[in-house]
Amino acid sequence: MIKRTRGEKIFAVFNVIVLSLIGLACLIPIWHCLCASISDPITVSKTRGLILWPKGGVTTIGYAKSLQNESLLRGYANTILYVILGTGFGVLMTIFAGYGLSRNLLFGGAIALFLTFTMMFNGGIIPTYMVVRSLGMLDTRAAIVLPTALSVFNIMITRTSFKSIPEGLMDAARIDGAGHIRILVYVVIPVSKAIIAVITLFSAVQIWNSWFHTAIYVRKRELYPLQIVLREIVLQNTSQASDAGEATSELNQLHAIIRYCVIMLSIIPMLFLYPFIQKYFVTGVMIGSIKG
């Protein structure tokens, strides 16, 4: 067993303290929303500050009312569709781009440099809007999926991961008569599950949380994703989940917890997704950042 020096022990304790504080800073808002969402509406409406335990008894009336909101359910369905389409297309194109750049093909270095340049500089919102409009994608699902489908960061870590694959595997496949497509499908992808899982998670989370591009390119409410619906509920302090005939006082009480309920409903899917990909996460990022 290697004995650690005093400096290493101090550094380890410092890391534990700092990371614990960061973890609490991330966990406390989620816990606050969860406790508030299952608390009594009247008590929550009168409470100021953090709610670290359900107040006034546990109730699920906020979730019941939220799930009656047609806009919320439609936003859920739209977001799931956008995540499937955007993540599938983005990961596929990222794999193709990463493989091409990792093979040192003609002008590969120049293309990689150009892509890296776009990570720091871009045309801006107005030119991008003009491009989307000229392509006839305004008020369409394509305007939500395509402009943000590819990430240069994902392409670069995928490229680095593919470059770390032993060249002998490629040569053996070429001797057997395999071309680039067969090498990619039968050699590269099977040994790169970790990095593919990582870029899938990155893409899915980015699309799930995205709302800004939709606010710019889309005006049809039936195309709104979940985050736009959530934004409207939180900012306007109202919800269409309530029945039109309910009393105003009851609505005001429900507003206090419905906001927390829709926030929890929007983050629960990603919280459940992460544990299934966690085992690939560290390995994939390390492989994609360090050439072996």
Using only C-alpha atoms, the radius of gyration works out to 24 Å
- Taking all residues together, what is the mean pLDDT? 82
Please tell me what the overall shape is. globular
- Tally of helical runs: 14
Strand content: under 5%
The CATH topology of the largest domain is MetI-like fold
Structural class: mainly alpha
Number of strands: 0
- Poorly predicted regions: 238-247
- SSE sequence, one letter per element: HHHHHHHHHHHHHH
Q: Tell me what the CATH architecture of the largest domain is.
A: Orthogonal Bundle
Helix content: over 70%
Protein name: Aldouronate transport system permease protein
Organism: Aristaeella lactis
Description:
The protein is mainly α and 292 residues long. The protein has helices spanning 6-37, 41-46, 61-66, 70-102, 108-120, 125-134, 142-145, 152-163, 167-175, 180-188, 193-209, 212-217, 226-236, 248-289. The longest helix is centred in the C-terminal third of the chain and has 42 residues, at 248-289. It starts with 5 loop residues before the first helix and ends with a helix.
What is the secondary structure topology, with strand pairs?
Layout: H1 6-37, H2 41-46, H3 61-66, H4 70-102, H5 108-120, H6 125-134, H7 142-145, H8 152-163, H9 167-175, H10 180-188, H11 193-209, H12 212-217, H13 226-236, H14 248-289
In short:
With 292 residues, the protein is mainly α. It has helices at residues 6-37, 41-46, 61-66, 70-102, 108-120, 125-134, 142-145, 152-163, 167-175, 180-188, 193-209, 212-217, 226-236, 248-289.
Which terms would index this structure?
2 domains, 72% helix, MetI-like fold, 14 helices, 292 residues, mainly alpha
